User: What shape does this take?
Amino acid sequence: MISEKAQELGRLIGQSEEYKGLLRAREGVEEANELHEQLNRLQELAESFERGANEGKEPSESETGEYDRLLTQIQGDSRYQSLVAAQSNFDKLMIRVNQQIMEGLKKGSKSPIITLG
Assistant: This one.
C-alpha cells in the first residue's frame, strides 16, 4: 500500500506546474547550445579548481578570469534565470510535500495500530 501511495504522489508531483516549469526551463537551457557549452566549461573549470586545491595549487589568473567571465554571462542569461527560478519553485513544492509527509508520520505514530486482515 505504501508503494502504491508513493507512486501516486510521484505522479501528482510530475503533473504539478512546478515540475512542468522545471522541465521546460531545463529544455530551454539544453536547446541553447552556447549556454549549455558555457555551463559545461564552467563545470570543467570548477572541477579543475577543486583538483588543484586538493593538490595545493592555485588556479591561474587566466582560468579565474575565464571562470568569472563565464559566470557573469551565464547568470545574465534569461534562460538560466528561468531555470534557477523554476528549480526554486520546485524545491519549495518538495519542501511542502516533505513537511506534509512528516505531519502524516506524526499523526500515524500516535494513532492506534490497525491490522489488515
Remarks:
- DSSP finds five helices and no strands in the chain.
- The two ends are 14 Å apart (CA to CA).
